Amino acid sequence: MTAVARGGPEPAAGPEASAAEVAAARGRGVARLLLLGSAVSFGLMAVLARKLSRGDAAFSAGQLTVIRFVVGALVSLAAFRVRPALYRPHNRRLLWTRGVSGGIVVVLYFLALARIPAGEAGMLYNLFPVIATAMSVRAFGERPTIHLVLALILATAGVALVLGNGSLHLGLGAGEALAVSAAFFAAISAVVIRTMRATDNAPTIFYYFCLGGLPVALPFALGRWPHDPRAWAVAAVMGLAAYAAQVLMTQAYGALSIGEAAIWLQLTPLAQYALAAVLLGEPVSGAGALGMVVGVAGVAYGTVLGHRPRLPARRA
């Protein structure tokens, strides 16, 4: 009778389980770094978009959205030409759903920015990770730990301090409704991305995001376009930053739960605030600096204590 038949442990179970745990931990670590890069790229995109919306050679919100999608689609096609294996569409229904919902998100958010201050719009839009975490309970059966919930609250409070300078007062007008709607559709997009990562890779998902979002944005891009070549060069960099941000975020969703990804996504407005101070010379307030510290502390707390402890393996 073998050792397993006598009730002893399987010889290979321990090393295999240990190797799997190490690989999973390494994957989560890489995913966190990807979300950090995504936050910086999203922040750079937003700062450049703000720069391009000013002055005589300013782009409209719809035009910037179209540029973002066109640049993303062209870079994706170039990547597929170099590495054809990157283009692997499987669940086309969800791919197109992601594209259309992502296009709606961008349009709604820019419409909100046209009606209310950027701080209010950004704070309301940044509710989407919280909404996505709630959706993940039903969609994936994910149960965030109390530490994860507390970390998300702490990180969100830091964002509120950064964007509101400690005194954010919101009304109930059309602009606020548009920003909340953008957050809702962004949460749907996050859940769809999380679902698709089991079958589709990040470059393919982003390509369909551009294809599905472009028809949504085109009606808002009518009117006279700027002709300054320097402005177009900056717009191209903005599109490349958006490409990097989306692909890195989508790739990270393959290894992290919606709840933990939501915490790391709170770094996006913090990065935007810091980059605006460096590149645009916007002032940094005391409340804003405190908010950055609180937000980063929330991310660190959720990363260290937010995961659900692994149950000990049963002996055979």
UniProtKB/TrEMBL annotation:
Record's keyword terms, sorted: Membrane, Transmembrane, Transmembrane helix
Main location: membrane
Domain EamA, residue spans: 33-163, 175-300
Segments traversing the membrane: 30-49, 61-82, 94-116, 122-141, 148-168, 174-193, 205-225, 231-249, 261-281, 287-306
InterPro entries found in the cross-reference section: EamA_dom, EmrE-like
Superkingdom per UniProt: Bacteria
Topology of the protein relative to the lipid bilayer: Multi-pass membrane protein
Protein's cellular compartments: Membrane
Any one Pfam family match given in the protein's UniProt record, by short name: EamA
Name used for this protein in its record: EamA domain-containing protein
Native organism: Anaeromyxobacter oryzae
